[in-house]
Design goal:
single chain; 184 residues; alpha+beta; YbaK protein; five-stranded mixed beta sheet; 6 helices; 9 strands
Amino acid sequence: MRAPIGNFDQALPLPEVLDSLVPPVAAAVRGWRGEVPAERLLFVDTDPAKADTAVFVETYGADLEKASANCVIVAGRRGQDTTLAAALVPATTRVDVNGVVRRHLGVRKASFAPHETAVSETGMEYGGITPFGLPAGWPVLVDAAVVAMDHVLIGSGARRGKLIVPGAALAELPGAEVLVGLGR
C-alpha cells in the first residue's frame, strides 16, 4: 500500500505489523476501539540515522514538514504530587508548557519530563514516543490543529519507523483532550 503522505516504500496497517511494534503500542492497537478503523492506522519503515528533521524531510518528502506532529511527555507538579501527561503538537510548533499545559493540568509548575522518566514510564524509545500505548489514566493533550490534519506522521514508540494516522484518530485515544493553542 502507498502511504497517503511522504515518500515511503511501503505503508502497512498496524494490525499487520504488531510484532514490529514496541509492546505498549502493539497492545494499544490490539485494543483499539476508535471510530477510525485500525486498518487506517499505518506503519512506515524509516532509517533512525535520518531522524533529524531536515534530513528526514529531505529523505522522505517535503510534505511531511507540515504533516508531522511531536509527542512529548510533560510533568506537572503541585506540592509533592506529580502528574505525567503527553502533549502532541504540530512539528512546526512548540508545546506551551508554562501556559496551556500548566493551566489545563491545574498544577503550579510544568516542565518537560526528564529523559529517563519519559522512557521508563512509557516503555518507548526516546525520540520515538507516540501517544498510542501510553499508561492508563494519563492525560493525552492533543492540539486541535493536529486533529484537523487529514494524515499525521508521528512516532512509533521506537526510533525506527513512524505511524501515519488520520488526525481524527488522535482525538479517539484513551485520555485524549483536544486543546486549542497547545502548540505555539
